[in-house]
Amino acid sequence: MSTLVLKDGRIIDVNGDRTGDVVIDQDTGLIVAVGTGLAADHELDCEGLVISPGFIDLHVHLREPGLEAAETILSGSRAAVRGGFTAVVAMPNTTPTTDSVAVVEQVLAAGRKALCEIVPSAAISVDRKGEQLSPMAELMDSGVRIFTDDGNGVQDAKFMRSALEYAGGLPNDGHHVVLAQHCEVEALSKGGVMNEGEWSARLGLGGQPAEAEDLMVMRDIALCRLTGVRIHFQHLSTAGSVAMVRAAKAGGLPVTAEATPHHFSLTDACCAGFDPVFKVHPPLRTDEDVAAIKQGLADGTIDAIATDHAPHTPESKERSFDEAPPGMLGLETAFAVARDELDMSLQELLALFTSGPADVAGLGDRHGASLQSGRPANIAVLDLDHEWSVAGREMASPAINTPFEGRALKGKARHTFFQGEQVLNNFEVTR
Ligand code: DOR
């Protein structure tokens, strides 16, 4: 047996914030001891570093199958572990769409060679068209627990009701099925390429009103009340959505929500230079929306920080603002941007990357909750003092579309362990 001790780190998880050691059995991939004064075959000095459960990202686009020039499951997993993530939920807007067991199996097969756990999600509707339910029961048998038409919201209220009722009636292994919604009423957002407001008017670009999101959040809260089936709201971007989710939770409804770092750090003013790197769906909003999302993260309305990591090829992002595809990279910058922007304790911040998303996705048996003996060694070792500057070309993705290019940040994952294997060593991926 070969063991490694992470020595004298600041251990932060759901059990608290203390100094100590974590021993990993690298043969079994399990944590075998947590305490002080522990010894093992090998030692990694973690003095001055934070030892956290590995992060979970509920929302990434890995582009495989279909757009491997922008990202692959392997390259996306490298970006993930560079960001401290040990599990990522892969969105189903691939080509072909992840709406069949065959494509899920393809994603899972590529995932087995990845540096972190690839958790496949599948579409709610066939080809994400909102017309016919995907074979959810079969997809669940192949391991899927999260369904979403992300990239688009489910437009038809009756169809969404049917999806909720069907999913809610499926047998499961004790963990709820999650229907996750990209909230956008397309009848209102159509033709828009940025937030509708002062900036879209000034720039002469088509706008997407906040109400396009608010109305679908409102509708789905009503459908959640009607069916009793859980809904997860993806990438909240408006003050109105945050207020409605807060009220729904206070009323006892089983709703959860995520927010992205770009939606709580950037505004539509970023679009002033017509740079498509700032084009994203839902769009960057206003200062008031940013403040509301920060408040929602602080008071528990929003359960998780998720990146909506959306790689696009440099060529496609060089098109005009109107024509470029929406989306931004997020995995490698999420933690440092969140730390820079959010006024909360480190333990609270880490919960939004670990226990919060683990609860939403039902991954708490292996990711995100606590560092203790017997659990898989999925661990991020963070260097909070490390100063760095964002550079798209230095990231693991073939894509370079980070909206934070050139931003000076502090804090980064220095080491990441996935199932006991060191997949990030001193900021470098090991394979
Ligand atoms: O900006 C976005 N990009 N929003 C989405 O919903 C989809 C994503 C993508 O796939 O590029």
Task: Give a nutshell description of this structure.
By secondary structure, the protein is of the alpha/beta class. The chain is built from 13 helices and 19 strands. It folds into two domains: 105 residues, Urease, subunit C, domain 1, CATH 2.30.40; 307 residues, Metal-dependent hydrolases (TIM Barrel).
Report on this model:
The protein has 431 residues and is of the alpha/beta class. It has 13 helices and 19 strands. The strands form 4 sheets. Strands 1, 2, 3, 4, 5, 16, 17, 18 and 19 form a 9-stranded mixed sheet that branches. Strands 9-10-13-14-15 form a 5-stranded parallel sheet. A 3-stranded parallel sheet has the order 6-7-8, with helices on both faces. A hairpin with a 4-residue loop joins strand 2 (16-25) and strand 3. Helix 7 (210-227) runs parallel beside helix 8 (239-250). The longest helix is centred in the middle third of the chain and has 18 residues, at 210-227. It is globular and about 60 Å long. The structure holds (4S)-2,6-dioxohexahydropyrimidine-4-carboxylic acid.
- Uncertain residue segments: none
CATH architecture of the largest domain: Alpha-Beta Barrel
Global mean pLDDT:
97
Q: What is the number of E strands?
A: 19
CA radius of gyration is 21 Å
Distance between the termini: 23 Å
Tell me, what is the CATH class of the largest domain? Answer: Alpha Beta
Please state the overall shape, judged from the principal axes of the Cα atoms: globular
Question: Which percent range describes the beta-strand content?
Answer: 15-25%
Number of helices: 13
Structural class, please?
alpha/beta
CATH H-tier superfamily of the largest domain: Metal-dependent hydrolases
Q: Percent helix among the residues? A: 25-40%
Report the CATH topology name of the largest domain: TIM Barrel
| Ligands | (4S)-2,6-dioxohexahydropyrimidine-4-carboxylic acid
Largest sheet at a glance? 9 strands, mixed
Q: What's the domain count?
A: 2
